[in-house]
Amino acid sequence: MKRILILVTAISFMLLTQKCQQHNTKIVYPKANKTDSVDVYFGHEVSDPYRWMEDDNSEETAKWLEAENKITNKYLADIPFRGQLKERLTHIWNYPKYGVPFNKGDNYFFFKNNGIQNQSVLYIQASLADEPKVLLDPNTLSEDGTVALSSLSISRNGELLAYGISRGGSDWSEIYVMNIETGEILKDHINWVKFSGISWKGEGFFYSAYDEPQEGDELSGQNRFHKVYYHILGTPQKQDLLIFEDKENPLRNFYGYLTEDERFLIVAETESTSGNALYAAKLKELTDINFTKIAEGFDYEYQIIDNINDDLLMLTNHEAPNQKLVLTLYNNDDPANWKVLIPEKETVLNNASLVGEMLFTQYLKDASSKAYFYNLDGTFVRELELPAIGTLSGFNGEKNKNTAFYGFTSFTFPSSVYKYDVTAGVSEVMHKSEVDFEPENYVTNQVFYESKDGTKIPMFIVHKKGIKMDGNNPTMLYAYGGFNISLTPSFSISRSVFIEQGGIYVMANLRGGGEYGEKWHEAGTLLQKQNVFDDFVYAAKYLIKNNYTSSDKLAIIGGSNGGLLVGACMTQQPELFQVAIPIVGVMDMLRYHNFTIGWAWAADYGRSDDNEEMFKYLHGYSPLHNIKKGVDYPATLAITADHDDRVVPAHTFKFMATLQEANGGKNPILVRIETKAGHGAGKPTDKQISEAADMYGFMMYNLGMKPEF
């Protein structure tokens, strides 16, 4: 028996050694054909040899992807602990997860996932004491879980459910209608819906859609001429009423929504991700809707929260970068006539609602949630006491009802759901997390470090209690830095596996985000975008200087605009990082605006055809165009998906083909291409677990970690 054990141990050691040796040899990557494609910008020639990869339907692209996936899959499969890592992820994932309930008509609704269901299920209950019943189970819509709910809306009387579904992660949606009492799916079916809500009015609903795209352009063609429609139940889509359009400006979006009492229709008009115009109409006849433009575009943000009689409650940053709450008549177009209910404060007002005849407001203070109640005249009532420093989500309630619901989470505080009595000001736990995680074993600190220009940047650092700060800790640095989006504390199932193995998780709140209002956002846009990359680099330098980690123990990760962040920093300062994981990143800054909704990002990025100065600035940091031959780049795993029609996968394809050819070191340069998946929303649980196992397996292995499960 002893000899058998010795033999098994020897074989295991030999196999492990063999795998390690395989990973230390330089990978031979698929040869990608190069063409002589060249663009000229203001007299400057820029080659684009992998332009053919922008055709996501071509046979040549498909063959290259197949060859890349083969190499990536083999490398990931050979990571010695990947199987155990996936088992641990599956185990820790497998606990009930509850969404925040909401009330409509005589019923309550909420989402629940029993553990590792691919999609969360929508439940209904007549009262909070009744046994919930399944209303809609998206897992029945496809065998592999890749059809997901993208939106839903319940009619005011609570009798009908309109819901959108997306297939394979695409931004495109289809709308269906269900009779809530019988469960019958009605014959109504709406196609080519995108960037839309669903707002019920009478015997139908408002929604936004594009014209049907040409065949082959569904996932990469530019989205043009957005429109708002009204659908009458029982009629075909071709008979839907056209409510709002702009024939002169094809690159604008229109989002229609109603006040809670359905008296006012609001249409927000945007030409980018920042700023909007606003139109309002008092509804009488659907065939005779007269809009008043109540806010000019596109320098400021305007959002109607609800109405108080004929006054509209508006959240805006008009001459108030941290936002304020005002009242305005539905047909008033002059800001001088606004009544300020809650003026701008030092902290950022990022949301408001009418609940229980009171104003509920959510603020951000140093990237964490604060919440307060006010009377309808703007006088202060009380603060909502939260369990810790963290993030409040989904404060769901109605203006004439006393009960509301909300969620709360933080880095080491798994998501919990609360019921709130608005009159008494008392919270009650409804659902507490049952995840296999011990919060008391971990600590979260917030620090403020200096960026290159001296600006103080906040950063959260999460790790096990008692670890030694000797510069040898594997560390994952994450950030976003764009589009006025704020990063706030939240619990992550997959991330918990990294920190329980001794890793340090760091989240930096860079300029370009919304953590400190519009000025903070603008400081990371256009000709100031380099501030974002400097903020990230100086976060890494702070961690190294203060002995949290070292360059050979530091991984950087980010998605979408955060993928651009990773791509820019790994090409500007490759020696600073050991591992880089750009996820669905914007990598070609000269051509991003040519695909799907990319044109809407120009307010943050600028465009290469704006002027020569903007072209040179974009070209100066565009990840694709700043890869240098012979440089030893970090171990890189770029992640994208075949149905990503937000940031098309060609960004990643071209970047990685260029990086593989240029890399001068032995670090792996791999691309992971998920099938039947998109930008991230609606991804089924089994795909999330597999992606997490690959991503963290790659990261931990290349940081030299030896996890014990």
What do you see in this structure?
α3 crosses α11 (685-702). Helices cover 20% and strands 33% of the residues. Residues 1-22 have low confidence and may be disordered. The chain is an alpha+beta fold and 709 residues long. 47% of the residues are buried. It is globular and about 70 Å long. The strands form 9 sheets. An 8-stranded mixed beta sheet has the order 32-33-35-34-36-37-38-39, with helices on both faces. Strands 3, 4, 5, 6 and 7 form a 5-stranded antiparallel beta sheet that branches. Among the domains are: 61-91 and 437-590 and 632-702, Rossmann fold (3-Layer(aba) Sandwich), CATH 3.40.50; 99-198 and 207-212; 355-434, no CATH class. The chain has 11 helices and 39 strands.
- Structural class by helix and strand composition: alpha+beta
Write out the CATH superfamily name of the domain at 61-91 and 437-590 and 632-702.
Alpha/Beta hydrolase fold, catalytic domain
What is the fold-level CATH name, i.e. the topology of the domain at 61-91 and 437-590 and 632-702? Rossmann fold
Radius of gyration from the alpha-carbon trace, in angstroms? 26 Å
- CATH architect. name of the domain at 61-91 and 437-590 and 632-702: 3-Layer(aba) Sandwich
CATH class of the domain at 61-91 and 437-590 and 632-702: Alpha Beta
How does the major sheet shape up? 8 strands, mixed
Beta strands, count = 39
Give the topology.
Elements: H1 2-24, E1 38-41, E2 44-47, H2 59-77, H3 82-93, E3 97-98, E4 102-104, E5 107-113, E6 121-125, E7 133-136, E8 147-154, E9 160-167, E10 173-179, E11 185-193, E12 199-201, E13 204-209, E14 227-232, E15 241-244, E16 253-258, E17 264-270, E18 277-282, E19 292-295, E20 302-308, E21 311-316, E22 324-329, E23 339-342, E24 348-355, E25 358-365, E26 368-374, E27 380-383, E28 391-396, E29 403-410, E30 413-421, E31 426-431, E32 442-450, E33 456-464, E34 475-478, H4 493-500, E35 504-508, H5 518-522, H6 530-545, E36 554-559, H7 561-572, E37 579-583, H8 602-605, H9 612-621, E38 635-641, H10 650-662, E39 669-674, H11 685-702
Parallel strand pairs: 34-35, 34-36, 36-37, 37-38, 38-39
Antiparallel strand pairs: 1-2, 3-5, 4-5, 5-6, 6-7, 8-9, 9-10, 10-11, 12-13, 13-14, 14-15, 16-17, 17-18, 18-19, 20-21, 21-22, 22-23, 24-25, 25-26, 26-27, 28-29, 29-30, 30-31, 32-33, 33-35
Helix pairs in contact: 3-11
